[in-house]
Amino acid sequence: MRKAVQIKNLSFTYPDGNRALVNISLDVGEGESVGVIGPNGAGKSTLLLHLNGLLNENSSIKIFDKPIARENIAFIRKKVAFVFQDPQDQLFMPTAYEDVAFGPLNLGLNQEEVDERVNYALSAVGLLDKKNHSSHHLSLGQQRRLSLATVLAMSPEILVLDEPNSNLDHSSRRHLINLLKNFNITKIIATHDLEMVLELCQRVFLLDAGILVKAGDTRGILSDKELLQAHGLEVPLSLLAR
Amino acid sequence: MRHAFIDIHAGLNTPLHRLNPTAKMIFLIIFLLAIIFTPVTHKLWFLFYALFSCMLIFLSKIPLSFILQRLANVIPFIILVSLSALFKKQGHILFVACTLKATLATLLVLLVSATTRFTKILEALKRLKVPELFIHLFSFMYRYSFLLEDQMLRTQRAYTCRSINPQNNFAKVKILSNILGTIFIRTYERAERVYLAMCARGYKR
Fold this sequence. Notes:
The complex is a heterodimer of chains A (about 240) and B (about 200). Helices cover about 40% and strands about 25% of the residues of chain A. By secondary structure, chain A is an alpha/beta fold. Chain A has one domain (about 5-240): P-loop containing nucleotide triphosphate hydrolases (Rossmann fold), CATH 3.40.50. In chain A, α4 crosses α5, α4 runs parallel beside α6 (about 140-150) and α5 packs across α6. The longest helix of chain A is centred in the middle third of the chain and has 14 residues, at about 110-125. Chain A starts with a strand and ends with a helix. Chain B has 2 domains: about 15-125, no CATH class; about 130-200, no CATH class. Chain B has helices at about 15-20, 20-35, 45-60, 65-85, 90-115, 120-125, 130-160, 170-200. The mean pLDDT of chain B is about 85. The two termini of chain B are about 35 Å apart. With about 200 residues, chain B is mostly helical. In chain B, about 15% of the residues are buried. At the A-B interface, α2, α3 and α4 of A face α6, α7 and α8 of B.
């Protein structure tokens, strides 16, 4: 299997001295869905931000065998789509259409192609009728889906999601999970929703205090009660019942 | 908490609202230039400008109270700036000129912004070849002003909930400055995240 993401010995310290990641090494195969789990402040978001070269250039990370370096950054941002946790950060344009068109326009596509992609992405998430709405008039569930559309329009190969379903009501959460299920691309999802991880991800990385505590098969890790408890997590109810 | 304080009256249907936004911007620029370059001694011209503005307000069907309120927000600043003219020789003429011209100009800008949706104004500016960086700045200002207002409102509520004993004014000012500081930092951090979100979607500058 081709490697979508390769990370070797990645460490990262924020300018204020906060050590967010310590010596992380992991691989994600093409087409694989992986979950990144761990307590608050474990370094999940920091790890994800690295995948798009947003924190700094880093030769310890390779996306499709290309290291994150200045000359590859355009390639990497085309391949890797990052969806921020807070839709208010992700959606910065006055209308939904402009938000979704932002990425494709930056890819240098012409107006016709941009329109086509916007229509495709908005209908994929079921928001075509909200095209001319401004994002602050949408519900949180709609905002989350619109955030997804903004990156789908760039037809990425790796989808990186930071807590895609926090604060969603049941039906919005279900809608989002079903959407994600239907995308057959590499997915890297940081979340506290272990039930969703169970449903979507084949493998899981457990992070705590910037350290990769364990990596492995989803069911194996999520049913390890002691391991999860030691790192501020709980075995999902659906696994307990068995 | 959803507000449309910017586009409150932009949805009315009058000839002024229906006018093409680009045309409106061009008229606005011409009138602003005319006001700026008319010597203040030409009293009749200013009478004409004032009457013309009043006619436009009437045509736009925008409530007079709305216009006056917005104007009242700006006039103190106009007067503050114009005051410096009083220290010059014959300064009172310059003072009157500055105040009058700036007030008329504000009135016209108010009218255009109140009768046009903000997104349409941005489109018009784009068509008039205003640099894209400025348009981005304006559109962010628009997009995030709602969020900022919500944030202020929530912070104020949280403050009210936890301030049980009445405080003296000095203590209140101190707390207010703390709140403003917190909001500034949050806004700054959001700006950083939004910039990252733009970069993530291929924005380069």
